[in-house]
Amino acid sequence: MNRLDIVIIGGGPIGIACGLEAKKNGLSYLILEKGCIVNSLYNYPSKMQFFSSSEKLEIDNIPFISNEAKPKKSEALEYYRRIVSTNDLHIHLFEKVETITTEDEGFTITTSKTTYTAHNVIIATGFYDIPNKINVPGEDLPKVSHYYNDPHFYAKQKLAVIGASNSAIDAALESWRKGAEVTLIIRGPEVGKRVKYWVRPDIINRIEEGSIKAIYNATITEITATELQIDTPEEKITLANDYVLALTGYRPNFNFLTSIGIDLSTDGRKIPSHNPETMETNIANIYLAGVICGGLETHKWFIENSRVHATAIVKNILHKKAL
C-alpha cells in the first residue's frame, strides 16, 4: 500500500476542510470517520439552530445558502454532504481509528477495518464523544441520557434537565412545549450567560411565570428510578422524576491523544501541545485542527474560527515537502 501524504482523522466540517485543502494542493489524503459524514453534527438535537450565520459555517469559500440567517441542522447536513459528494472527497465512513504508531518515515494508522501509512496525520476529532459525567449514584440508569434528540419522547413525563448552557436550555424549552413537566437543575445562580441571545429571554420568562421550574445552586446527590435527591444551600429536595437529561457538556478523547504521545497542559485546561501558527503538535508531522485544540475549553473554537487551520496545516506540510 502506498504511503499517503496525509491521513485526516475526523469527517466533520474541519476534517472536510482539511481534505479539500489537501486535494487542491495535489496531496494524497484520506479522511477517516468513525460514523457518518459530519457525525457529531448528525447527533445534535433534531431541531437545533446554529448560533452562527450560514456564511460563518462555510468552508473553502463554498456558499452556504439557508432559509434563515442562522441555519438549522438539516440545512448544515445537506451543505456538508454536498461538499463531500461534489468534490469527490476521499473519505472512509464508519471506520474508527484505534491506534497511531510512529515509524521512521511516518505513521501507521490502525483502524477497525485495516491499516494505513502516512507521512502526516491531522486529528480533527472534535469533542462530542465523551460526556462530562456528574458522577452520582444512579447516573447509569436507563432513564438518564447525556444526549438529547427530540422533545416528543418526553411528552407527559417529569423531565429533569441538568445544565445551564445552550443544549440544556433548548432541551428544556422544546420539551416543555411538547407537554413535558420540566425542571431545570442549575449548578450556578442563573441561566448561563452564553445562552443564545434570542433564547435566553424565553427561558427566563418561562421560569418567572412558573411554566418551567428552576433549581439554582443545585447539586444532585442521587438518581433513583422515580426520584432525584438534590442539595441546595437552603434545603435538601426530593424531586419526583421520570427522565433525566444530563446536558453538562462534553470533552475530547484525551486518552487517544496521550496514547499517541501528545502532551496536555497541566493547568487544568488539558490543552494539547501545538504550534498555533502551524497547528503541529509536539510530535513532528502530527497536527490538530478544530475544537480539539482547546482541550476542556470547548467554547473557544468553532467552525468559523478554526476553518483556517486547514490552510495553515497544508501550507506547513508543503513547506516541509519542498525542503
**Radius of gyration using CA atoms only:** 21 Å
Q: What is the makeup of the main sheet?
A: 7 strands, mixed
Return the average pLDDT rounded to an integer. 95
Order of helices and strands: EHEHHEEEEEEEHEHEEEEEEHEHH
Classification by helices and strands: alpha/beta
User: What's the number of extended β-strand segments?
Assistant: 17
**What gap, in angstroms, lies between the N and C termini?**
25 Å
Name of the CATH homologous superfamily of the largest domain: FAD/NAD(P)-binding domain
Number of domains: 2
Shape: elongated
Q: The CATH topology of the largest domain, please?
A: FAD/NAD(P)-binding domain
Number of helices: 8
Your description of this structure?
- The protein has 323 residues and is an alpha/beta fold.
- The protein has 2 domains: 4-130 and 250-322, FAD/NAD(P)-binding domain; 133-246, FAD/NAD(P)-binding domain (3-Layer(bba) Sandwich), CATH 3.50.50.
- It is 24% helix and 23% strand.
- It has 8 helices and 17 strands.
- The chain has helices spanning 13-24, 39-42, 73-86, 166-177, 200-208, 254-260, 303-306, 308-322; strands at residues 4-9, 29-32, 91-92, 97-103, 106-111, 115-123, 130-131, 144-145, 158-162, 181-185, 213-215, 219-223, 227-231, 236-240, 243-246, 250-251, 286-288.
- Strands 1, 2, 3, 4, 5, 6 and 17 form a 7-stranded mixed β-sheet that branches. The chain has a 5-stranded parallel β-sheet with strand order 8-15-9-10-11, with helices on one face.
- α1 packs parallel to α8 (308-322).
